[in-house]
Design a protein that fits this description.
The chain is α/β, with parallel strands linked by helices and 319 residues long. 40% of the residues lie in helices and 13% in strands. α1 (8-15) packs across α2 (19-27).
Length: 319
């Protein structure tokens, strides 16, 4: 992952003004003076909220969100989508914290971070009572942070078993930092255990990626049965549940049939946006680069843009 930058033209378009207007307001001192790279004006994502305020526009979001990507069935593309979704939110100016809940650390790898380049994971926080700020990693983007994972996180399930309030430890740990971020995005392993339960109880929103096949469709039944039990046991309910089709190929009859079944039985949760099949997503994940940097004009990037517009319909920017 590289530090993303906007040109003056692209930044102006994002803010909903023209390039001449942007340059004129800079000259008049109504907007911050531009930075340059090799003599060219450049603009950074983390400055977008400041520009919006100067332009008299509303903030990017008015309600801070804590979101988890979860599916008990593996192979749905959950990790790469959650990583690229979080990157895109940061690229649009939001302050984002990614939390890797999987000891395999695939989310961490999707951002190009090596497993041996850090020492702390959530194990340090939940079990050893370390300050959560001590395990937050900076990335090349000022407004995108990460709590990484590697195999050091593996013993957390066993260690949590004997602890008091074991299901609420993550929620309590992030309470001290959640005000620092617009969105906290968690990527969970494809299982139900104490760590994923901690993630669920710490979040407002649930994202469930499904493939357009009937194994994924039947897996939803197990997920919703589990959520029903959690609701009863902990008096907890998600504010929003988003089911979305990933890796969709409209030319396959099985995909169309599965989509119809989802529309029939899960219409209250199913997103209108469909993430189409795109080999570039897998390629981007394999090299640790977000899809919006690897292939910004490809269908994967365009579909994620529509995905974000559906989740945050009131964003005061154009993209």
């Amino acid at each position: 992952m590289e530090q993303p930058m906007y040109t003056a033209k692209d930044y102006a378009n994002l803010l909903g003004i023209t390039k001449p207007t942007l340059l004129k307001m800079e000259t008049q001192g109504k907007l911050p003076p531009p930075k340059t790279s090799d003599g060219v004006r450049v603009y950074y994502p983390h400055e977008i909220p400041h520009y919006l305020k100067k332009l008299g526009k509303p903030p990017l979001i008015t309600s801070k969100r804590r979101q988890i990507f979860l599916n008990f069935k593996g192979g749905t593309g959950k990790t790469s989508i959650s990583a690229f979704y979080a990157f895109r939110l940061a690229y649009l100016g939001m302050k984002v914290l990614l939390i890797d809940l999987d000891p395999q650390g695939h989310l961490t790898q999707c951002l190009g971070i090596d497993h041996d380049s850090f020492e702390g994971t959530l194990y340090s926080v939940l079990i050893e009572k370390a300050d959560i700020r001590d395990v937050v990693l900076s990335t090349k983007m000022e407004n995108l942070k990460l709590i990484p994972a590697n195999l050091d996180l593996s013993p957390v399930e066993l260690a949590l078993t004997s602890m008091n309030a074991r299901e609420q430890r993550l929620r309590k740990s992030i309470a001290s930092i959640q005000g620092d971020y617009d969105v906290i995005v968690m990527d969970a392993s494809p299982s139900i255990g104490l760590l994923n339960l901690n993630g669920i109880l710490a979040c407002n929103d649930l994202f469930v990626p499904v493939l357009a096949d009937f194994l994924s469709y039947h897996g939803l039944k197990i997920l919703f049965e589990t959520l029903s039990t959690i609701e009863e046991d902990f008096d907890f309910i998600f504010e929003n549940i988003y089911i979305f089709l990933n890796n969709y190929n409209a030319s396959h009859n099985i995909c169309q049939r599965a989509k119809e079944a989802l529309e029939k039985h899960y219409s209250g949760y199913l997103m209108k946006t469909v993430l189409r099949q795109d080999i570039k997503i897998a390629e981007a994940a394999s090299v640790g680069m977000p899809i919006h940097q690897y292939a910004p004009k490809n269908r994967g990037s365009l579909d994620l843009n529509e995905f974000i517009k559906e989740v945050f319909p009131n964003l005061p920017i154009v993209f």
